[in-house]
Automatic annotation (TrEMBL):
Keywords: Cytoplasm, Nucleus. Residues 493-538 are annotated as: Disordered. Residues 500-524 have a biased composition (Acidic residues). Residues 14-109 form the WPP domain. The keyword Nucleus applies. Its main location: cytoplasm. This is WPP domain-containing protein. One of its GO terms (cellular component) is cytoplasm. Residues 525-538 have a biased composition (Basic and acidic residues). SUPFAM superfamilies: RNI-like (SSF52047).
Length: 538
């Protein structure tokens, strides 16, 4: 009897590795997508999948691998699931290799079709994402040789040019550069050695120098300062730019200073996008110099750029000159309260603002209140308000609610991952009551909201004609509350988002033993799956 009891206790305390959590499965999909879109020896031979195709393949692969592993696990239900995890990883790797060898579904022949869609647009981005050699460049770029062509926009995105292909392209670009107004060179040197990539950029820059562009996209090229300066000849010749995109370009402090130094005039600039760079505070100060010289700016994006309080304050001061601003995206930086308050003084000047994205800025209540108060008195046509992930409590909700109540054209509201709780949710819900006929999406997920707050939000939005989605997942709604809410949406269930992560127990913490067990499970699963790679085969 004693030994049986001990065996039972040992079994009940053992860690189960199968099935993996929903988050772990999503993590694997994300990792496989990255693997499938990363240039490698396989992609050189079979072609590189687009992000969209890779993500679709990754989801299918994960589902098939999960099914195979789950079937395996059912044959050993008393085990810890470790062998099922191994099957899961091995099957995922095998199926990834098959996807790579299958290659992209989009065929090169479709490129020619795309280039003929409109005689003013020459676009080769629709083919497979892969290296392009001199021979292929000669064939694909043939339309540029035609005398009297009227191409004003070229897009070389999604094809990686080496020096041989660039030498083919150079004289062709030179022949049409006087008629060009839009140039897209985003993601056009992927996988090339730095020395070769810099030579290619210098060549394209010198060839295009002097063309009068309104649109220039150099995104996804890991430029850094060297890359920015490689495009120096082109940048220094631009006086009429209206749109400039430098997304995911490794724009450091030095690179940002180079951009500011090289572009002679931004008086006509309407769109300026820096996203997913390592700009930091000093880099943001350099970007703010560009912004100050851009009075016509309508769309400014400086999200995920590692900007702290000092950089945030500098950007806020610079934005005061941009009174025509319509869209502002500063998400995912480290502004803090000080930069939030500084930004509020600029927001009060933007009468035409329609979209504002200020999530994950560490604003807290004081910063959020300052911004809400400023927006209340300006931006009468605001359509999108995003202030998720800012540690806003019920204290800050009062100012937010007053602001929201005044925005009759609001279509999307995102206050997810704050600390509003029932009190804050009820204030926000009441602010949406009347005069918000344009509203179609509200995200109040992960706010420690309980039954009363969730019910009121549901009662308000379900009455709005054309409303599309309420997200209140990740809260503390009781089972009874869930039933009430589902009843409210019974005639339009698609309007209610998933409630999979709701915690009906309503606790902010879990049992310590369970925490330790889950942590151990997560760590072991992570260790088994983190190094998942494509196995090389015949």
């Amino acid at each position: 009897m004693e030994s049986g009891t001990q065996a039972f206790q040992q079994r009940s305390l053992s860690v189960k590795l199968w099935p993996p959590s929903h988050g772990t499965r999503l993590m694997l999909v994300e990792r496989m997508t990255k693997n499938l879109t990363t240039p490698s020896i396989f992609s050189r031979k079979y072609g590189l999948l687009s992000n969209e195709e890779a993500e679709e393949d990754a989801k299918k692969i994960e589902e098939l691998a999960f099914a195979a592993a789950d079937q395996h696990y059912k044959k050993e239900p008393d085990g810890d699931g470790s062998s099922a995890v191994q099957v899961y990883a091995k099957e995922s790797s095998r199926l990834m290799l098959e996807a790579i060898k299958r290659g992209p579904t989009v065929k090169d022949e479709e490129i020619a079709d795309k280039t003929s869609i409109h005689e003013t647009v020459f676009d080769i981005s629709g083919g497979r994402r892969a290296f392009i050699d001199a021979e292929e460049a000669e064939e694909i770029l043939k339309p540029l040789r035609e005398p009297g062509n009227s191409y004003t926009k070229i897009c070389f995105s999604n094809r990686s040019f080496g020096l041989d292909a660039a030498n083919v392209a150079a004289p062709l670009l030179s022949s049409v550069k006087q008629q060009l107004t839009e140039v897209d060179l985003s993601d056009f040197i992927a996988g090339r050695p730095e020395s070769e990539a810099l030579e290619v950029m210098n060549l394209f820059s010198s060839v295009l120098e002097g063309c009068q562009l309104r649109y220039l996209n150099l995104s996804n090229n890991a430029l850094g300062e060297k890359g920015v300066r490689a495009f120096g000849a082109l940048l220094m010749s631009q006086n009429n730019l209206e749109e400039l995109y430098l997304i995911n370009d490794g724009i450091s402090e030095e690179a940002a200073q180079a951009v500011s130094e090289l572009i002679p005039s931004t008086k006509k600039l309407k769109v300026l996008h820096f996203h997913n760079n390592m700009t930091g505070d000093e880099g943001a100060i350099a970007i703010s110099d560009i912004v100050k010289r851009s009075p016509a700016l309508e769309d400014f994006r400086c999200s995920s750029t590692r900007v702290g309080t000092d950089g945030g304050v500098a950007l806020a001061e610079a934005l005061k000159t941009c009174t025509r601003l319509k869209k502002l995206d500063l998400r995912d930086n480290m502004f803090g309260v000080g930069a939030g308050v500084a930004l509020s003084k600029a927001l009060s000047l933007f009468a035409g603002l329609t979209e504002v994205y200020l999530s994950y800025l560490n604003l807290e209540d004081d910063g959020a209140e300052a911004l809400a108060n400023a927006l209340k008195e300006s931006a009468p046509s605001l359509e999108v308000l995003d202030m998720a992930g800012n540690d806003i409590t019920a204290k800050g909700a009062a100012s937010l609610a007053a602001c929201i109540a005044s925005k009759q054209f609001l279509s999307k509201l995102n206050l997810a991952e704050n600390e509003l709780k029932d009190e804050g949710a009820i204030l926000i819900g009441k602010s949406l009551g009347e005069g918000h006929g344009q509203l179609n999406e509200v995200d109040m997920s992960t706010n420690a909201i309980r039954r009363a707050g969730a019910r009121l939000l549901a009662q308000v939005v379900v009455k709005i004609p054309g409303f599309k989605l309420l997200n209140i997942n990740g809260n503390f709604i009781s089972d009874e509350g869930i039933d009430e809410i589902k009843e409210l949406f019974k005639s339009s269930p698609d309007m209610l988002g998933s409630l999979e992560d709701n915690d009906p127990e309503g606790e902010d913490y879990e049992d310590e033993d369970e925490d330790e067990e889950n942590a151990e499970e997560g760590n072991e699963l992570e260790s088994k799956l983190k190094d998942l790679k494509i196995e090389q085969g015949e």
